[in-house]
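ok new one. same drill as before - structure tokens go in, u give me an amino acid for every spot. 385 of them this time. try not to just spam alanines like last time pls lmao
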């Protein structure tokens, strides 16, 4: 199979020949063939709780609903995803993971499931940094519970977000990173010393930095500034018009640099759906007309309805980065930080044939087609939920 476009990295027009992996990349010398189409590695989302009506936190979500949601995900240019399970009842978290593992093993679309992200349950129990996670299920790190997650997923838990203020957090982090699992700091009000201990133990990422933080932070010593200043931590950002102010986003990007910045959606089931009531595990949420997803009956944000192609356009406009830099934050950077096999070198022979073709139109990113390990999926269609 072949496809062509301007390389997002070199700006040159190229033609890519591929099967499940990229075989050849050749230059296209005819300038008249340039129709404004860009080609890039498929986008990677390390944090997605659901999409297009499917709640990944519910063990009752059907495989058909998961398949449909992944096809909707592909229409946004994403080709690799870590379905994310948040803090909840231990048995239901395990059941949700088993359900997602079945989706990986049995669905054609399951090839895009790179692994799983556990966001919790060992997060801060305090209001503010806990975010929308249910307080009654917050609990300390437990290696036996982690082993249960790995058994349920055949060892596919790839990322764990935790708060490093738990007394046993450094030992837990060392155990996970020793098995190749990425550990991220998030939903925390840790002291500078606790953050430094977590980094020394092997933590390499900050989850949705700037969100799920205490309402009031000391101006001298606070968890947010410590993470921004720590060069050994990359950071993921939810770049919509709700989660971060433009000023904070620009400051954070300057502190981390493009090379240590990742785009995530933190999408939940209402993403790509109409306003109304939905679920995030046991949490009742609502998608409002202004695109906010909130805990039902309140104002607390509970994930997002962001799409990755929107996040790329937003970070260009609100963060002051280039198109190439924005796409790097959705491709090479999450591949490196998330240890995504076959995706570390970009558009190179031998890499997985995860590709996206798109145009920049009216300040947005319009997806034309997406390839997942060489299998073609069309751009946005009609998805109802």
């Amino acid at each position: 199979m072949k496809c062509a476009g301007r390389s997002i990295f070199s700006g040159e027009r190229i033609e890519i020949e591929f099967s499940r992996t990229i075989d050849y990349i050749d230059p296209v010398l005819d300038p008249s063939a340039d129709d404004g189409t860009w080609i890039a590695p498929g986008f990677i989302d390390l944090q997605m709780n659901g999409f297009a009506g499917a709640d990944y936190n519910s063990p009752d979500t059907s495989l058909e609903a998961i398949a449909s949601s992944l096809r909707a995900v592909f229409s946004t240019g994403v080709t690799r995803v870590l379905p994310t399970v948040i803090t909840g009842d231990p048995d239901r978290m395990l059941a949700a993971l088993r359900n997602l593992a079945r989706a990986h093993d049995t669905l054609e679309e399951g090839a895009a499931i790179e692994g799983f992200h556990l966001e919790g349950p060992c997060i801060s129990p305090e209001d503010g940094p806990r975010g929308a996670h249910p307080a009654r299920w917050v609990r300390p790190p437990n290696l036996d519970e982690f082993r249960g997650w790995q058994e349920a997923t055949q060892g596919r838990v790839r990322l764990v977000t935790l708060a490093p203020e738990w007394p046993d957090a450094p030992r837990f982090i060392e155990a996970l990173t020793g098995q190749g699992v990425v550990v991220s700091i998030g939903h925390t009000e840790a002291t500078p010393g606790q953050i430094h201990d977590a980094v020394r133990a092997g933590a390499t990422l900050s989850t949705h930095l700037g969100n799920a933080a205490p309402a009031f932070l000391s101006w001298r010593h606070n968890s947010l500034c410590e993470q921004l200043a720590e060069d050994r931590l990359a950071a993921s950002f939810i770049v919509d018009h709700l989660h971060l102010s433009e000023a904070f986003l620009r400051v954070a990007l300057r502190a981390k640099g493009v090379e240590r910045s990742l785009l995530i959606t933190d999408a939940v089931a209402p993403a790509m759906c109409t306003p109304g009531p939905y679920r995030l595990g046991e949490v009742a949420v609502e998608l409002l007309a202004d695109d906010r997803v909130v805990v039902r009956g309140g104002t607390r944000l509970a994930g997002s309805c962001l799409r990755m192609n929107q996040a790329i356009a937003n970070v260009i406009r609100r963060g002051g980065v280039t198109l190439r830099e924005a796409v790097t934050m959705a491709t090479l950077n999450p591949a490196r930080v998330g240890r995504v096999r076959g995706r570390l070198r970009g558009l190179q022979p031998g890499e997985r044939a995860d590709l996206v073709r798109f145009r920049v139109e009216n300040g947005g990113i319009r997806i034309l087609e997406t390839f997942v390990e060489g299998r073609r999926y069309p751009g946005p269609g009609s998805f109802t939920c």
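The first helix runs from residue 63 to 74. and btw The CA atoms of residues 211 and 243 lie 7 Å apart.
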